[in-house]
Amino acid sequence: MADKMTLILFSGEMDKALACFTLATTAAAMGFEVTIFFTFWGLNVLKKGGISTGKKNFLQKMFWFLNKGTKEKLPLTKFNFAGAGPEMMKMLMKQKKMASLPDMMASAREMKVKYIACTTSCGVMGVDRTDLIDEVDEMAGAATYLAEAKGANVNLFI
Amino acid sequence: MDNIKADKDLDCLGLYCPVPIMKTAQLIKTMNSGEVLEITADDIGILKDMPAWAKTTGNEFLGSNTEGDVHKVYVRKK
What we know:
The complex is a heterodimer. Chain A is about 40% helix and about 15% strand.
């Protein structure tokens, strides 16, 4: 049986998402079956952005407005400088011909990395399936994740 | 390592982890069993990463050749 890796992406920062996808794509290239479970701030990586089509109450609307972020636009854990930090980081990465987060995510999908979006986080934040990118394979919860993790050799929380 | 004859070359100069490993994994799929792939890279991590990748995927790591900052590594497809 193939090796298997699962990752929980809880964080919504670009640097942490890069770490997640560096490991996911490398593992997939090593023949691992890879699943990423996106929860809480990590859901931002899967968001389409823009205007939400889902139903939201007042607080959820506020949350959607405040909690901006898509894979193209995420903050940094350190040196964010109100968004200037990530732009500088992207420039540096481009200069050094490093793969950007959207590039890595495209590679991950080519290598059949599976995406699960946490329904509880979606429910709290008022995020609908339609607010997320089409690549999401499953909308599920902790039990689904644990069933996947139980059979995996490597499980990481980022 | 001078006598290894590669069937295919992969230029990874200027690329960082994990891109050379991903490119290697993709290219080796198109090759036949027993053929040798030569990967040229300048990220020194390749010297450790490529044997680890080969071991995990069952391919054979044949060795490496370093000249200055440029590393050539050789993998035989299983």
